[in-house]
Fold this protein.
Amino acid sequence: MTEAATQTGKASLQRLCVVVPCYNPGDRLAAVVAGLQAVGATFILVDDGGTDGAVAALDLPEAQVLRMPENRGKGHALLAGFQAALESPACRAVCVVDADGQHNPADLPRFWAAFEAEQADLVLGVRNRAGSYVPLRSRFGNWLTIHVTAWLLGRRLPDTQCGFRLLSRAFAETVLAEVAGGRYETEMEMLVLAMRRNVRIAQVPIATVYEAGNPSSHFQKVQDSWRIYRRLWQAARKYR
């Protein structure tokens, strides 16, 4: 890529605001932030009541940092980040990048390109699991959620659990008006809302990144899975 093309891409990403929900991400966060800076992305870190000092340790004069007084869950952090992002009139879209390194900021230009080319309101990352290390319980959980979602909503998406996703400004405003906060179930309700409202959904293939033992995850297998399926059922009825 030429230097001129690189600068053009960075200028486009200035109209995209990246929200990074953080809860005790440890030293993984620094690499994520470096990746965001490398592509010229505007970003907001939402420190969801973290206690490890990872956000405070970074020198980020160019970034907005929101600090929540206590841990409330990823869904609440996302909605707070969306609200802050939309305060900028220049923001055309909001993208979520996790703080644990599972999402590569270098993929952001491809999300933006899909957003513009397909005039999408929601761009979903789709993980390629072939040849990738994925814990058996995660494989099964993803498979089950894909099929339950298809059964309830009459449409099959290849990846319903990936948090790497871009929302148009209009759809982000709709999410803020209608979707409740929570933990990981908030992302599921966003997806149901998009499918029920028939918004244009684009998909971008991304790499699958899992650490052995998934030590950075705060996902509680039983409690959070229950919350996700309960919210899926409730949202399917709510947005009928």
